[in-house]
Amino acid sequence: MKYKTVIIVLLNLIIFTACTSNNDSSKSNDKKVSDLNQAFIYSAEKGDTAKVTKLLQDGANINTTNEQGTTAVLAATYNNEINTVKALIDQGADINIRDNNLNNVLLYASAEGLLDIVKLAIDAGADTSITNRFGGTALIPAAERGHVEVVKALLTRSEIDVNHINNLHWTALMEAIILSDGGKKHQEIVQLLIDHGADATIGDEDGITPLQHAEKRGFHEIAEILKQAEA
């Protein structure tokens, strides 16, 4: 009886030791994978394309995210690392993934006027219907901030909705008036928007139209563009 008890104790000890060893090994592997993925994102952020490529070959997950929900391709976008963004897109990175701030490659690049990355994202088939934290598409902040070439690229190279309305009930046309200085860049953007189907009758949540806002702010050139569109 004592002999059987000793055998059972020894077997349990062996099983426990094996399980502990497996758990330790699993934790060690998980840490190695985590370190690899974080190094991958960091290298992308710094624009070290060669290191990024090497880490991918070593097994890094191309769509892994850090604590901020940022992927490698978005980290590269944040620093305008064009070559790294292109390399990651060529390797199949998902450019539509949004981070904790609800930014993705196209949304951030458009808002910041990063034209080369905007073009890369569009050509890679970026989903232009995805919205930022204000409920706006990439076109709206680009129009607001006066990024003429970005607006032009979005309107001519993608199927973006020119009349999308954000959480403030503003379209790109409305933001190009309400949040601008009415200068040359915004005049050009308003014309571009009109030429590509912007509906000048869509008002804000109080029903005030773009033309009424332009006239109130003394943006005479923009008001003339809108009047011609209505005519």
**CATH class of the domain at 125-231, anyone?**
Mainly Alpha
Low-confidence stretches: none
CATH architecture designation of the domain at 125-231: Alpha Horseshoe
CATH superfamily of the domain at 125-231: Ankyrin repeat-containing domain
- What structural class results from the helix and strand content? mainly alpha
| H/I helix tally | 12
The main sheet comes to: none
Mean pLDDT: 92
Radius of gyration: 26 Å
Helix content: 55-70%
Query: What fraction of the residues are assigned to beta strands by DSSP?
Result: under 5%
- CATH topology of the domain at 125-231, by name, is Serine Threonine Protein Phosphatase 5, Tetratricopeptide repeat
Large-scale geometry: elongated
- Find the count of extended strands (DSSP E, 2+ residues): 0
**End-to-end distance, in Å?**
103 Å
The arrangement of helices and strands along the chain is HHHHHHHHHHHH
